[in-house]
Amino acid sequence: RSVALSLGVRPTADASPRLWKFAWRSHGRLLPFLHAFDRCKPTDSSLSLRCLWLKALSGNDESSPAADGGVSYDMLPTGTRRAVGKGLRRMYPRLHHANIELRTAYIDGAATEAAGRRMRRG
């Protein structure tokens, strides 16, 4: 919780390990259907596509420091990406996509800080 708050990100939901596993497995089972008609689907889709879908959930939250202006959402298949659109985003419990949001906020902050140090040094 304290890490999330220090990054300006809402913490993950208080959920049982069983719910976390269920959500992870369910998402994995849905991926083939979400990309059934995706001509651009990469060959290795085990973790990279999961992360992209999770990033799209957090990236669509305009109040989040991890908001990306819809970039990750636009990379999803046109026919199925509405499942993580702005209207439905609130229906998802803050589990795996909240972890992606935390990591994104941390990396973005660290990169911005490092770039600022470099700019100050000249």
Lay out the secondary structure.
Elements: H1 2-7, H2 17-34, H3 48-59, H4 71-74, H5 86-89, H6 96-121
Helix pairs in contact: 3-6
- Point out poorly predicted stretches: none
Report the radius of gyration as a whole number of Å: 16 Å
Order of helices and strands: HHHHHH
User: What fraction strand?
Assistant: under 5%
| Structure classification | mainly alpha
What's the helix count?
6
For the biggest sheet, the summary is: none
The backbone outline, from C-alpha atoms, is globular
How far the N terminus sits from the C terminus, by CA atoms, comes to 37 Å
- Mean residue pLDDT: 90
Could you describe the 3D structure shown?
The protein is mostly helical. It has a domain at about 40-120. The chain is built from six helices and no strands. The chain has helices at about 1-5, 15-35, 50-60, 70-75, 85-90, 95-120. Helix 3 crosses helix 6.
Provide a brief overview of the structure.
Helices cover 57% and strands 0% of the residues. The chain has 122 residues and is an all-alpha fold.
Spell out the key features of this protein.
122 residues; mainly alpha; 57% helix; globular
